[in-house]
Structure formats: C-alpha cells, structure tokens
Amino acid sequence: MDIRLLDAEPTAEERSAVDAIIGAPSSSWDGGERGSERDAHTAEFGGRATRELRHMLLPLLQAVQARVGFISEGGLDYVCERLGVPPAEAWGVATFYAMLATSPRPRRVVHVCDDIACRAKGAVKLCAALEAKCGPPITHEPEGEHHTLDRDKPAWMHSPCLGLCDVAPAALMVEAGESLTERSIGGATAEGVSALLTGKRVSGADGADQPHVVRSPRISRGGLLERVCKVDPTSLAAYRAAGGYAALAKAFELGAEGVIREVTASKLVGRGGAAFPTGRKWEAVRTQAAQPHYLVCNADESEPGTFKDRVLLTEDPFAIVEAMTIGAFAAGAEKGFLYIRAEYPLAFERMHDAIGQARAAGLLGDDILGRGVKFDIEIRRGAGAYICGEETALFESIEGKRGEPRNKPPFPVSHGLFGKPTAANNVETFANIPAIVLEGGAAFARVGTEQSTGTRLFCLSGTVRRPGVYEVPFGTTLRELIDMAGGVPEGRTLKAVLLGGAAGVFVRGDELDIKLTHEDTRATGTTLGSGVVMLFDDTCDVRDAVLRIAAFFRDESCGQCVPCRVGTVRQEEALHRITSGKTRGGVRGELALLHELGEAMKDGSICGLGQTAYSAVESAITRLGLYAEPGSATA
Amino acid sequence: MEETDVVFLWGSNARAAHPIWFHHLLKGIHNGAKLYVMDPRRTESAQWADVWLGLKVGSDIALSNTMAREIIHAGLVHQEFVSNATSGYDDYKRSVETYTLARGAELTGVPADVIRDAAHAFAKADRAMICWTLGITEHHDAADNVLALINLCLLTGHVGRWGCGANPLRGQNNVQGGGDMGAIPNKYPGFQEITDSAIQARFEKHWNVKLQPNHGWNLTQMLAAMGRGELTSLYVIGENPAQSDADGHHVEHLLNGLDHLVVQEIVMTRTARLADVVLPAAATWCEGEGTVTNSERRVQRCRKASEPPDGARDELWIMSEIAKRLGHDWGTPTGEEVWNEFRTVAPDFAGGMSYKRLEELDGIQWPCPDESHPGTPFLHARLWEKGATRGPAAPFTVVRHEGPVEMPDAEYPLLLTTGRRLESYNTGVQTAGYDSPLHWGEMLDISPEDAERLGIADNEEVRITSRRGTLVAPAHIDRTLRAGLVFMTLHFPDDVATNVLTIDVSDPKSGTAEFKACAVRVERSSVMAGSAHS
Asked: Chain A contacts of B50, Cβ < 8 Å?
C-alpha cells in the first residue's frame, strides 16, 4: 500500500519489541537499512503477503506497549512501516484499547478496580485512601502535563471490572520491560497497592490462585468444576490421569457429524449470554463451502461481575484445549483462536502453557492422536475493551482493527473471522463439550429443565458471605443459590441482586424465587446473562452502582453507532442530574427521558452493548423503585 | 482486469496518474490477482505490488526479451496459440536467445531470480495482462517497447481472451475518441487507412472533395517542419505544445517563428498567449453535446450541463464557421448529426452505436457494427477461432535493447526521468487553478544517497542543468528513488519549465519524444550563486 509515514524514529527498544514478533526487516522497504543493490531494483513488500500480516497490528502495538509502557509516534511509525499500515489507521486502533497508551505512561502502572462489585466491597474508600497515600491517579487520556511525567515514577489508575470480583476489591499491576510483569491482587488495601507501586512483592492474596468454587450437592458427578482446584492445572499428565482427552478420542470415533448429533441432542446453548444452540451453530459452519473455517473461543470475559471463565481457564486449561479441538473437528476448522482479555495474566499463562504441552504431546498440530486431524490454537490477548466480548467485535480485534461490531447478517457462521465461516463460542460453552461427547447428549439433557439443560456457573459477588463460582443445575432458584453462598453478612438485609452483569437487571431482595433457567428468566423479565449474581445489602449505595454502570457503558461504547454513542452519554447525564437534584422537568421528566433513550438504544444500536445499556438502569427504576424513594429529589 | 490472475503494470504509475482505473485494478487484486510493477521508481503503484521490478530507465525491451527467453527455455510457451495464430515466431525466438537471465539482470538491474519468477508467473497464469502507459511510450524506441510487450502476450496466449491482453491506459477521458474520429494524421474515422485508394475514394465521394493521398504529419514532425520553414501556419485545438513538449525553449522559438498561429482553447495557456488569434471555446464535456471514448473503448454520451461563459462558443460551431469562411457550408450540425455521419462512414466500427443505444446500454465498446450488436468487451478473440474466421496471423516483431539516447556521464551524472503526481494533470492547465493540500509545486525528487553526496538538504533549492537548459527547483529527498535517478513532473511549467531540460529525440514510428530519460547535473543553488560571483 502506498502510505505516508510520520518520519518519527523508533527507539532501539521499540524496534526490538516489534522484531521479536515478526522478525527483523527483510529489506530497506519494510524498515531495514538502505544500501543493498537488490533493494535498489526490487521489492517484495507491500503486496498480498504484506496485507495478510495486517492482523498482527494489535499484537505488535501490544508488544511495544509491553516493552516500553506506551506507544510513541516512533513506535507506531515503525509498526506501520513493518506492516504497510497507514499511521492514521494504526492510531485509530491504538487509541481504541484502554490498555494501550499513546502518550507517555510510567513503566509500572497499577490498575485499581472501582467497578460495581469492588465498590460494594469498599473500592471507593480504597481509592480515596490510595489518593491520600500515593497521589492522584493518572487517566487514560491525559492532559498536557502527563507529557512531561517521570516515567520511572509508578502510577495508579482507575479500572473497570478486572474479573476478580470474588476477591474484591482487586488491582492489577502491569510493568513494561524486557519481559512484561503482570500481577493481580485481591483483597486490595491502600497499603497493598502502594507496595505494588513501589515494586515490593505483595504476599498472599493473589486472588487468582485460589478461587472459591462450590458444586451444588444436586450434581452427583461430573460437572464443569469436577477438576477445578483438585487436578494440577499445569500438568497434562494429571489432566489425562483424571480422564482428560478420552472425549477427543471418542469424538474422532463419532466423526464430525456424530459429535454434532450429540451436541444437538444435549440441547446445549451458548453460555456467553445469547443462548444460541451450539449444535446448530457448528452444523451451520461445518456445511459451509467457503474455506478455511475458523474456531474462536471467546475468553474476553468482561461483563462486570463475571469471573467464571477466568476460573475455568486458570484451573482447568486442558479441558478448554480439548473442547476447542473437538469443536474444530466438528466444524471443520484447522485453526483456532483463543481471545483472552488483557486483565487475565494468569489465565493467559496457564492456557499458553497448556497449549504448548498439548502441541508437544501431539494433541494439537498436524496429526492429532495419529488420526490425521489438523488443528492448532493461537492465543490473542485483548487490550482492554469490553466491546470485544461481542463476537464480531472480537473478530475485528483479532484482525488487528478497532473492536467495532459488524452489522448482521451476514452471521459469523458464514462470514466470521477474516470473512470466513467461524464457530465462536464462550469458554463455559466449550467446557460442557467433553462430557456431552463422552456420556452422550441425552444424558446431558437429563440434567436441568426441559428447555435449559445441564448445569450453569454463577459468579457470586458483592456483599455475599462466600463469594466464588457456584455450579448448579438449571432450575435451581435464586434463593437456593444465594443460600449456598451464605447470603449477606449477619445482621444485614439484602436490598438488591444484580443478575447477569451490567447488561443484566436488578431484582429486589424479595424476588428470590425466580428459577434460574432461560425460560423462567425470560418470563420474569430478568436474565441469566453471563451468570452474574451480585448482592447489595443495606450498607451499599445501589444508586451509586447504577451510576457506575451508566459510566461503564458510556466509557465502553465503541462509538460506532449514534444511538449508543450518544444515548449512553445522555443516560449517564440524566442519572447524575437526578442524583444531584438538579433535574430538568423533575425526576418524572428525567425518567421519561431515560425511558425514551433506552428504547432508542434498544431499537437502534448495532450490537448488544447499546441494546442492553438501559437494562440495569430500567430495572433500578421499575423493579427497585430506586428513584421514587422518599427523600429523593422530586418534581 | 477485475477478473485476472496476473497483472504486469509496466511503465505506469496508475495509482497517481490513473486513479480511477487503479480502483478497478484494486478490485482485481482483491479478487486475487498478483500485481507486478515494472518501473525505475518504487512508485505509489509499485508499493501495492506483490513484486516491484525496478528496472533501469529505458531497459524495457531487455526485460521483456529476457522474460521471453526464459519462458521459451522453461517450456512455458503457449505452443498451440503460437502455431495457430501467430507468425514470425522462429525469428523472434532466435532474436531473444542472447537475452539470458544473467545478461537481462545486467541490462535491467533487476535480479535474475526476480525476472525468472515474474516470467514464470506470467506464463503459467490462466489469465494475465500487461497494462502500460507513458513509461513505455515516452522513449525514442516507444513503438518497439510496445511491440516487446505484445510479443510476451502472443508467446503466452494472453490475448483475445477475457481477463487477458495488452492494454495501454489512456491518459485522458477521450484521447481514444480523438483517434476513433480520425484526428490522427494517418487514418480516416474508424481507423480506416488513408493510403488505401478504395477507402479514399469512398470518403472523397461522401465528402465531395478531393483528399490528399498521403499520411499527414504528427506533432513531432510538425515541429520539425516548422524548423525547416515548411509549416508556417498552425491551428491548435486544446493542446499546449509550448509547455507539454520536450526541449521547451526550442518549441517556443518555433511557435514564435510561425506566420500564423490560431489557438482554440478553454483557458489562456502559454501557447494561446503566443497566438495571433485565440478562439475561446466551450468546455465540451459539460458545455456541449457529444461522445467520449474511454480506455476500454467504451463510447459514452456526454451531455450539456451548463452554459459556456460569455464569448465562448461551441467547438462544432467554431469549426463549422471556419469551414464556411473557407468555402464549405456545413450548416450548423449538432453533435448527434456529426456522430451519425461518423456511423455512416465507419459502419463496421460504429454502425450500431446510435445515441439511443449508447444511452440505453450506458455506453458501448467498439466495434459495434449494427443495432443488434452488444459491443466488444475485448479484441482479437478471432485469434482463437478455428479455420478461416481466425483471419491473418498476429506477428511477432523482433526488437532489440538500445537504452536511452542520452546516458549519464561525468559532466551530467544523473538520469532525469519525468512523470505525473496524483493531484496535478499534465501542464496544469486544468489543475493549477485549484487548491489542493497536495499541491507542493514542482520539486526535484532525489535519492537520499545523492542528496547526501551533493550536500543537499530536504526542500533546499537546487539547480538542475542538462545540455539544453537549466532551472532551479526545491529538492525533495525521496526514498523510493535509487542513487543516480532523479524525478520531476511537468505540472508547473510557469514556475519550473521541466521540459527545457528534456531531450528532443523522438520515436520515428510514433512521434513520441523521449521524456523519460535525459542526463542532468544537480547542484546546490546557493553554491552556484557563490561560484558565479567568484
């Protein structure tokens, strides 16, 4: 492509970060030194081979960020030169993702979560204490003074949900350098974060290491948590000894159509939130004539309050590798992508390690189990964008673009990743596959209800006594689930439960008889969403949580379509006006405005983000009656 | 080109000079075509290529002949097509035998493996085409360059089929139409041969005048005739030779020496300023009715959208009035009437292209002999037919590498080649009046190596001197150029008259001047001034 570069020089550090991933330049035309006689008379850079590397844009930007701590103009320019991408386009990508910085940022930054679950556990106080102790946070889009900041002086910043709600409040330290250092902590205190800032090792409380998981007593055997916290997640041998990879062998016996038959019979539906039948999806991909087919595992678990996929990835990584291999076999894909959110360093490490072990053991590669089946998995890390959990935005992100959702149709089964037929499923969905293949779809379908088969993982957080991941059969009531987790602490009362995450709905503390199935939640106007069950007791400011949700959507809207881009801003403004008592047209007027905005976003947004951005706010109004309480500003 | 497998874009920076056409090429690339660009500079177009072949200026025949020899020796010749539909293959084969890969690499500078791979890709492709522009034709051996490329197409059977062929890209919306209508010195309308007495008789009868039986002069020959004093009066329509032709000082001198110069123009060009009479014309593309023929031979209607400014007249009216003064009353024909007359005198060519059909079909590709004919998407399909309908064989032509007339030497060590930039058009008559963020004025593009050697900073004024003239322009250090090669355009002739530098040698067959190669010397302008005083 004929592009104009910025003529900004990369540093040696930036150069080597990029070259470490795609190799040194092959000629002066892609960033090497001038002077060779060959280069004066030929170039093989800029054509199809170059364009096919376009998807490396995000990994290269991440590499610069990981090495230096931010992406300078020179670093951006060098990435563009190596890939033949216009700087304006690369800038658009770099500025889209929250974990990438395009202005100087300290090498060591601690991201402190102040999202809803952590707020329920004192994140606001934590941030105030931290500010008093370590100074104000830096922001993602800094003002001028940050250009002169001392990059050797560590800094902290606010962060949306880090997926560590079971150990809230949480923080994540990221330190750029020769090798990237990442460390998440749970149970964060001002002292703990300040120790992280100074580079001290923080003992204990590495929340990701010891998740609290509970299986319902109604699950007699098997289930999604069977191996979690019991079988060594870093050992393929241990996984195999616990029965791992029997399902893959069985799948090869069944053949692709046999696998799909069992998955269809199991009535398994996607656990990412949309509840689409998995068997139907795989069959639709399998029968597409266009080649190649791709398989994508969506591990961009970003819905605030959700952390079940994190637990599966860190504690049972081989099961995900095996399930993806089965899925790829069924859908006819030879290449799979695992897209893990940036905030999950341990999950990345465990999955990276598991994939390596599987490859070495011939369980991935060109001849899996000696059956001539070909499949391999490439991990892509997110860069801090909630919207990339939307599957078409995730494809865009893997392709190295801004994570902007696509219009549908066409659907991913025919036009997915790189425009090819793609089977994209959530981590938890995959986790169900080995058991379905081994024991048959019919056996799987006997658990749960007629329409919601199997078990489901729920993420209990907020002011609950025993936060963690809970596995229950579909049909369990919300009350039973909350009781399993011990309810709210002694002497407090449950005011509200947020079901399904920021994109979900609030229910009242007296609405706990809702049966947790797809059909019952639909009938009651609630949702299972991504399995979030976040408790708010009488010590919590639920209005504050609603405001945080509104701020979250405003911040995470990709800005592509008007209803969402404008609607999420106007929604947050209206809520602020209500809270501050400076309403226009009284509370009633603001509520009418919110309703209208919500309808517009629901009707007019391209993707689920805008379509559900009003959902929790609406339930706070209609179910909780949050803005009709005595004492609130009235018209 | 949207449905082809391999494109050789040869001597063309279409990305900048044919941007609309290039979008169609991009569709082809999107559909899977591999692009090879042959150009001394790694141009904007070359930057889109899978492979750039950065040949030395004027070594096109060497490159083509080397590829041909490689195709022959690799057994990749389309034997069936060559034996059925061509002539002269044996002579051609013998003539390219000395162009080994090693010699080709030496003559062109392009590495041997790159030449070989490109040749193989072209020959093995199911569909392949060569597209070229002035990088092929603005040489003293222009016609031979074209024939060299045609040879390659014949050798591989990439002609007369969909997605294949030898395609010159036209530089103007209607340069093809001018030739179609007979505005060339050797053909009647519809490319009918002037020297054919039967055809001549037909035209004499139709027009009821006596017609001279010989080829006329082309522009280069006219300039030569002016120099000899044989041509003393000139009627120029929509051309700016004072600035568009090589060796500008000389051309201006010739125009000044004419007895009578008439210029029919839409703007006051440099040539118009030299004229005895200027006839202000309407801009026919929007202020008159007619047709244009584009690069793919598609005849399209153009319609009057606005009134010409006061005093400007429709070109048909002007010419009819001149004819009347010269004793031929043509009345006041409309565009359609002229077009219908054309259809009558060139029925095999345009008989089926009524205004009505042109409008219905959004243009028709010639030839289109009758009203049931759909037009001709590609030419030469007959070569693939069996039996008599195949017609005469397509001849291979023996062509030899010569290289530019003027090569760099100790006194003029750099080779200047000229071309176009995206935002400007030719001598700027149609573009200089518009603002563009890309209008940077004329510059001398120079390689980083030469700039360093000469101590030239980016944007510094430099003096450029050839054996014919000298001028000053800012230097622009350009990484797409190799050492020894410098580049200029002709877009800003009022500020920087590039053509005072270019050499006045032209191809005897086509009349095109060798704008693409002349030897120059470049010096820092400030140093020059200093030394002049000392």
From this structure: 44, 47-49
